[in-house]
Amino acid sequence: MGSDNSPLLAQALRIYQANFHQKTSKVLTRGEVAGSTRKIYRQKGTGNARHGAKYAPIFVGGGIAHGPKGIRPANLVLPKKMRRRALSVALLNKLKDSELSLMKGVKEAPTKTSQAAHFLSVVGHPKRDVLLVTLAPAPSLFGAVRNLQGVTMKRASLVNAYDLLAHDQVIMTLPALTSILTRIKGPTSK
User: Which helix (H) or strand (E) holds 120?
Assistant: First the structure.
């Protein structure tokens, strides 16, 4: 699969986190603040510093001088081979640290929240973030775990290196693991 490749994982995590960030914050400059443009007081003779409009950045309620503009830069992209490699390294790290558990399939999975909580306590869930990975959507399992704190459920086709590293424990079905391993191998050449 792959050896420990910390620089690649660091780069992958940085790109995933940067793309999660919305970058939508925007502030008003002095030209965008609504209000009068009247001079506050005359230029000379008051003993105070000279000022123009009351919406200058120096005043409370004025515009912001160098704030965020709300312009979202293009998303950062991790090349496909690097994505696969990062997923491979993250999976290998989980395996090395004994943080990866396997289930035969979704049919043996709990369907009630109390059963799911008991199942996760047996696997070692307390005080941990758990990622459940299935091959296909499993509404009964999702219904059982959605109210449990610290439990996330994803399909194998949507799992990436960030998901694996962000959770303390990963529980996968065998078909989901097979699907992820096929994704890591990439297209087979003929």
Answer: helix 113-123
